[in-house]
Design a protein that fits this description.
The chain has 241 residues and is α/β, with parallel strands linked by helices. It is built from six helices and twelve strands. The chain binds glutamine (GLN). The site of glutamine (GLN) has 11 residues, from helix 5.
């Protein structure tokens, strides 16, 4: 993109008088039209267990600052949260042990967007078939864990996702869940065959596959859009304002 090279003699007094540089994030463009400049949102990645680093890299690629969230207080610094894949029984227990669950629920009810991938989707669901394990229970649906069966416990498939447009998104499924008994107010955004694998309920996005394991940033960008729109348009960097 056209970064200006027409700066004249940046030396001596002249450089002192130069206007402050305009940071690219402040320029208008399709992704910067609404909400705060890119540099002002921070997205947390829950880092108690699981596939954390690839989400951090993906968010960085999308130009968004991210932090690892291990303790409840760290949620105060974020405008949105990713709950990565891992082992849902372990993550659920650790969230409860560190008081993260209560705080995540409180922030989600106040509108903070959450992207739950795989284990994250399981923890977002109100019901987990055949299990009483810890969960956040924020989305009105039931999930089946390890739902694709042992023979195909890991596979890839092209998914049509209308909200991000063509081409299809390559879904990487690893011992993935899918959703059943989805309440009418939950939007189904993608299916694999007849299985529901991507859903949204207001500020919550649940994904049965691993979008962080591809080079395709579109699911993360869609989520970042949700986060950006949830942040007040005034120039505030405090998510609790
Ligand atoms: N099967 C795992 C569970 O039940 C989820 C797997 C994943 O997150 N990739 O938690």
């Amino acid at each position: 993109m056209g970064v200006s090279t027409k700066i004249k003699s940046p030396s001596g007094d002249a450089s002192q008088k130069r206007k402050p540089e305009i940071r690219p994030a402040f320029r208008t463009g399709p992704r910067q039209r609404r909400g705060n400049p890119k540099s002002e949102i921070v997205i947390g990645v829950l880092a108690v267990q699981g596939a954390v680093e690839k989400h951090i890299l993906m968010l960085e690629r999308c130009g968004v600052r991210s932090i690892r969230v291990r303790f409840a207080e760290e949620l105060d610094a974020v405008h949105g949260l990713v709950i990565p894949g891992g082992e849902s029984t372990t993550v659920g227990k650790l969230m409860a042990r560190y008081g993260l669950d209560k705080k995540i629920i409180e922030r989600a009810r106040a509108g903070m967007p959450i992207l739950g991938t795989c284990t994250g989707m399981i923890l977002l669901a109100k019901k987990i078939a055949g299990s009483e394990q810890h969960r956040l229970g924020l989305m009105d649906l039931t999930v089946l864990r390890n739902a694709f069966g042992r023979q195909v416990d890991s596979f890839e498939a092209d998914l049509d996702v209308d909200v991000i447009g063509p081409p299809p998104f390559r879904g990487v499924f690893i011992r993935a869940p899918y959703a059943v008994d989805v309440n009418r107010k939950v939007e189904v955004l993608a299916r694999y065959g007849d299985k529901i694998v991507l859903l949204r309920e207001g500020n919550l996005l649940a994904c049965a596959f691993h979008p962080e394991l591809t080079d395709d940033t579109r699911i993360h960008e869609y989520f970042i859009g949700m986060v950006r729109r949830s942040v007040p348009t005034k120039r505030s960097s405090n998510p609790r304002d």
